[in-house]
Amino acid sequence: MKKNILIVTYYWPPSGAAAVQRWLKIALELKKTGHNPVIVTTKNGDYPQIDESLLEVIPKDLKVIKTNSINYGKIFKLFTREKKLPYGNMAAKTNDNWIKKVFYWIRMNLIVPDARIGWVPFALKASQKELALQKFDAVITTGPPHSSHIVGYFLKKRFGIKWISDFRDPWTNIIYNQKSKRNSITVKLDKYLEGKIVDNSDYTFLVSKSWLNLIPKGNIKIMPNAFLASEFDNVKYHKSDFFRIKYIGKFINYDFIDDILNQIGEFSKFHKNIEISFIGDYGCITDELKRTYPNIRFVCKDFIPHKNAIQEMVDSEILILLINDYEGNKGLVPSKIFEYIATRTFILGYGPSDGDAAQYIVESKSGIMIDYGENDEIMNTLQNQYDVWSKNLYKKNTGDITKFSVKSQIKQILELI
């Protein structure tokens, strides 16, 4: 039976990067299977990246309602002269100017729950109008930004509609809150809002079971991220003369990347055809890096369209997955891990071997998760994968990965609504 589902999401194409992928994929699959998702989003949002190519995959008959918003990010860029918004890290650096430090302080101590709160009244008005036009089976709000759940809260109160709040990351226990000093009143207000959202949701989706202790108790359902199978149709692997090791995506305070670089650097002393690519938002490869690892061929690409990123993942022999070292990291499952799995390329993960990400790697037979400091294990893994590749025995993973596809998400969503 056809379902009408209102999806309230701040991130939508042309927004790029990871935040947009979860519900874009789900909406596309819902539409493909005969259901009617309607999207409420923002126009000209504070997006960390722009990917115009994603607009091409949206069906013309998928209704997308774009609203105005009050953009704190644009004010931030105007006064600080920064070209990019802070994303995933709200801690001021010692060399930041005082204006930037003030904006960070305001964001962390006076704005609750997040800097996208200025979108809420516009999104709520648009959602109410849409609910008055047609009958919906459910409303789904997704965060971050968790301010989007405030829209769902008021829709639930007014219309009594079934409401699912989706937590792609923790709320008050998100990593940048853990690493920032916030005043006690702000923290209490934030926790109060989080509790009200979870308590009033019919269901709350959480991407990782290890995060159950990081959000309030409620009717929690675990729904991990997933890959959209159609994105990998006709994407072919091309061999190179170089053994290609790639990191795809944004870099956020991964100081321990040096552990992996040091081992690859040692490995490259014996093999002169090693290539490392940083693709996404890493920045330029420095002269110091080249001097430290003279035998490695470095490739650096800034943000690229999603379809190109998929080709880069397929055209590699090892994909690097990094899990940040902080309390609660066992539940951290970057959304790209599922696309890594879908490419069937070997994954070299660095993080807790008993975490959720490690479990998915093991279940899909996609690679290995190595604990912090296990340098010998990194070296052994590099050698094993290189030996297979150099002897022309390299093959992509052939295991069954269907449980990690968006189709499994759709089944869960439809069962609940």
Please, could you describe this protein's structure?
- The protein is of the alpha/beta class and 417 residues long.
- It has two domains: 220 residues, 3-Layer(aba) Sandwich (Rossmann fold); 161 residues, Glycogen Phosphorylase B (Rossmann fold), CATH 3.40.50.
- Helices cover 36% and strands 16% of the residues.
- The protein is built from 14 helices and 13 strands.
- A seven-stranded parallel sheet has the order 3-2-1-4-5-6-7, sandwiched between helices. It has a six-stranded parallel sheet with strand order 10-9-8-11-12-13, sandwiched between helices.
- Helix 1 crosses helix 14.
- The chain is globular, with a radius of gyration of 22 Å.
- It starts with a strand and ends with a helix.
- The model has no long low-confidence stretch (mean pLDDT 88).
List the helices and strands and how they pair.
Layout: E1 4-8, H1 21-32, E2 36-42, E3 64-67, H2 72-80, H3 98-109, H4 120-133, E4 138-143, H5 148-159, E5 163-167, H6 175-178, H7 184-200, E6 203-206, E7 220-222, E8 243-249, H8 257-268, E9 274-280, H9 287-292, E10 296-301, H10 306-314, E11 318-322, H11 336-343, E12 346-350, H12 356-363, E13 367-370, H13 375-390, H14 406-416
Parallel strand pairs: 1-2, 1-4, 2-3, 4-5, 5-6, 6-7, 8-9, 8-11, 9-10, 11-12, 12-13
Briefly characterize the structure:
With 417 residues, this protein is of the alpha/beta class. It has helices at 21-32, 72-80, 98-109, 120-133, 148-159, 175-178, 184-200, 257-268, 287-292, 306-314, 336-343, 356-363, 375-390, 406-416; strands at residues 4-8, 36-42, 64-67, 138-143, 163-167, 203-206, 220-222, 243-249, 274-280, 296-301, 318-322, 346-350, 367-370.
